Amino acid sequence: MQMRWPWLLLLATLLVVVLAVLASLQVRWINDLSAADEQRRRGALDFAARRLADDVTREAMRVHDAFDQAPRDPGDLVRRYEGWKASAREPKLIDAIYAADAAGLSRLDVAKGSLEPVPWNDAFDAVRPALRAGPDAPPARRTPIIPQIPAVMVPLRPEPPPRPEPPFGGGPPPFRPGRPQDVTFAFRPRRGVLLVTLDRGAIEALVRDFAGGTLPSEEYDVRVVSGDARNDAEVVAPMLNAGPLREGPDAPPAYWRLLVRPRGVALAEVVAKARRENLAVSFGILALLLGSFVLLAVLARRAERLRVQQLEFVAGITHELNTPLAALTSAGQNLADGIVSERAQVERYGSMIVKESHRLSDTVAQVLDFAGMQSRGAPARLAPVDVRAVVEDAVAQCGWLAEEAKVKIETDVAGALPAVDGDADALTRAVQNLVANAIRHGGEGGWVGVRAVGEGGSVAITVEDRGPGVAARDVKHLFEPFYRGRGAERTRGSGLGLAIVQRIAAAHGGTIEVVRQRQRGAAFTLRIPEVQHA
Prior knowledge:
With about 525 residues, this protein is of the alpha+beta class. The chain has helices at about 5-65, 75-85, 130, 200-215, 265-335, 345-375, 385-395, 400-405, 425-440, 495-505, and strands at about 95-100, 105-110, 115-120, 145, 150-155, 190-200, 220-225, 235-240, 255-260, 385, 410-415, 420, 445-455, 460-465, 510-515, 520-530. The radius of gyration is 55 Å and the shape is rod-shaped. Helix 5 (about 265-335) runs antiparallel to helix 6 (about 345-375). It has 10 helices and 16 strands. A hairpin with a 2-residue loop joins strand 13 (about 445-455) and strand 14. Among the domains are: about 1-130 and about 140-160 and about 190-245 and about 250-265, no CATH class; about 380-530, Heat Shock Protein 90, CATH 3.30.565.
């Protein structure tokens, strides 16, 4: 056994190192997993937000497609408006329709079917460059949406130039060689655009409508902001902008933005909570593995100790049985062979045979009692038991052992002692084991006392001696089967006496306790409840 412990210690150290490495790898893996999870969640949320913004922008582009290349004819404009409105997802998206050219600004009156001149709106200054004609005209916008208004700019169909009247009444002017022509035919077409302004409330209604199919409303908050509004969202997507959202001081402002954030808790906190849960589960598994190893080590140690105790028990029982059997065999053989013939010798041999028979019977009875208690936890018979009779029977059965050890047994049983409820034979065996144990291990004091008194609803039977007492390190193991304390090797025994006493006490609902008295011996007190029925 001593050779195994260094290997077990080495194995335990190796296991602790492996668990530490596993814990470090798990922490690193969970951190990477959390970062990847946050990136995945944020990417999915960004994709959903951009898809939602594109849906709203696409709905605005349908306005452009409905009026693309429309003539400057109020009736045609009204028909196009009514056609768009019949198929639009949000009919209130168009707030007003304006026709703008170099001559001025007109507003379409849908009810009257006419273009009514209105003063120029300073908010439309962004479209002035598009109204200029000629080679110096700026390039066309990448998208027809003007987010600052907001409005959709649609070019009107160019009007054909007017045909000039001939100046000479019938035909073309006469050709005069060497002279410049008097009339030129260079005409510049009239250039104009439609400005279809969008309603802000309708834009927000579109966002809410599209968000219902893209983002679960119970998990996310979606807001639409314009201009320099504060950005406190997890994901930002540009919407109704002239170009893509870019970073940097020279990047154009994203005037319209879609802000998305998880409802209640930030995305980073959700990922952090999941990380903490994963760490708790991982460390719980590692702790379970470590606890299992410790439990296996403790159980292996206990099994080894029980194995050694059982081997010692077998050796002790063999010795306990072999010694009286050898004495009985020798005495019987001597008597049978007629070697012993004198009366005094015969009496001595007879007395020895009786004592060894008692010892043999006591050993066998202890083994049988312990084996029987392993299969039953309650006393076989329940009846009122006279404690005085129990004490007297137990002391009488130990008389031969006290005589052999030259120990005086004194009994003190209180008068009018209440009866206890239990098995008289089992209680007698318990008191007998306590008395025999005191004689064997404390008999050098030459005195053993047995006292029985009533205490608060129970009867206390105390057996004490004046021997060397009980070592402190043996107290917690005294009632274990096969355990023999320090110094017990000087006396014969199986290590079952006190274990049997404890099982009998537990079966009767009582207790057994020991009081260490290093200077004057030890005292064992057995407490059994009084009888509870008539």
